[in-house]
């Protein structure tokens, strides 16, 4: 029996579905991404374009927005016959991605009716899903400017998010140019407060104009816990009574943005 040839199989599979076939070297990135999306939506639309993969979706309450851009160069394989939108049930995708292990390669192949997911390492696992119709959302382009910009390593933020999730339903972010620090706190029954100073080893960059202060829903904030697994650092931007923007850079130049509107005061 001849040796298995991955490139030959890739070509054979391409002729079966003939719309899009992509391969990404680390399945755990997409596992974390879909975990976050599933907390916002039951279904999501993946747009495969000449420039790469785009996902842009807002939760039904219009509080949180996720914006994903993976350039085609981020994929080890990116074969596209023509632009296509792939609709995915999040419950079905999560069942598949629970089988993903670190080091697995993630493959997606689709046409107008079918989606095939493969998780490949020393073994190959194949799962078939339906390409479902997902209603289009009217999402306006965001044109935001921010007074506070903090880039920090993700590990301390993981701890902060877990702690504040136990402290109350809202979390306030406050940054001061004069004091050179970011304060995250809850003033509810179980009070919580932490300070991150500009000279902290966990801070890579901190730029603040004046003072910025805004409060956000903790349940939506902790949605980004899964995303802290895909990047060593996170960029946090906000202004007073404005949305907070978080940005994660992933392998190959992909970027994941998560926006959250402030609570009403």
TrEMBL record:
Protein's UniProt keywords contain Methyltransferase: no
Proliferating cell nuclear antigen PCNA C-terminal domain location: 195-262
Span of domain Proliferating cell nuclear antigen PCNA N-terminal: 25-133
Domain of life: Archaea
UniProt-listed Pfam families: PCNA_C (PF02747), PCNA_N (PF00705)
Annotated keywords: DNA replication, DNA-binding
Subunit structure: Homotrimer. The subunits circularize to form a toroid; DNA passes through its center. Replication factor C (RFC) is required to load the toroid on the DNA.
SUPFAM superfamilies: DNA clamp
Gene Ontology terms: biological process: leading strand elongation; regulation of DNA replication
Gene3D superfamilies tied to this protein: 3.70.10.10
Gene Ontology molecular-function annotations: DNA binding; DNA polymerase processivity factor activity
Function: Sliding clamp subunit that acts as a moving platform for DNA processing. Responsible for tethering the catalytic subunit of DNA polymerase and other proteins to DNA during high-speed replication. Sliding clamp subunit. Responsible for tethering the catalytic subunit of DNA polymerase to DNA during high-speed replication.
Protein name in UniProt: DNA polymerase sliding clamp
Family label: Belongs to the PCNA family.
Keyword DNA-binding (UniProt): yes
């Amino acid at each position: 029996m001849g040796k298995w040839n991955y490139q030959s199989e890739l070509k054979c599979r391409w002729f079966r579905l003939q719309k899009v076939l992509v391969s990404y070297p680390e399945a755990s990135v997409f596992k974390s991404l879909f975990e976050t999306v599933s907390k916002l939506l039951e279904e999501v639309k993946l747009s495969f374009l000449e420039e790469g993969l785009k996902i842009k979706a807002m939760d039904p309450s219009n509080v949180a927005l996720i914006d994903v851009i993976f350039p085609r160069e981020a994929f080890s394989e990116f074969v596209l016959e023509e632009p296509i939108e792939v609709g995915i049930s999040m419950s079905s995708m999560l069942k598949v991605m629970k089988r993903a292990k670190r080091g697995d390669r993630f493959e997606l192949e689709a046409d107008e009716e079918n989606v095939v997911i493969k998780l490949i390492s020393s073994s190959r696992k194949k799962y078939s899903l339906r390409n479902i119709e997902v209603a289009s959302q009217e999402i306006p382009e965001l044109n935001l400017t921010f007074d506070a910009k903090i880039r920090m390593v993700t590990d301390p933020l993981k701890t902060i998010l877990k702690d504040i999730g136990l402290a109350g339903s809202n979390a306030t972010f406050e940054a001061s140019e004069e004091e050179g620090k970011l304060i995250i706190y809850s003033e509810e029954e179980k009070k919580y407060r932490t300070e991150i100073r500009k000279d902290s080893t966990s801070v890579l960059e901190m730029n603040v104009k004046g003072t910025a202060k805004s409060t956000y829903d903790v349940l939506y904030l902790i949605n980004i816990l899964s995303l802290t697994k895909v990047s060593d650092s996170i960029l946090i931007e906000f202004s007073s009574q404005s949305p907070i923007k978080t940005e994660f850079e992933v392998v190959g130049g992909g970027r994941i943005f998560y926006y959250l509107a402030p609570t009403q005061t």
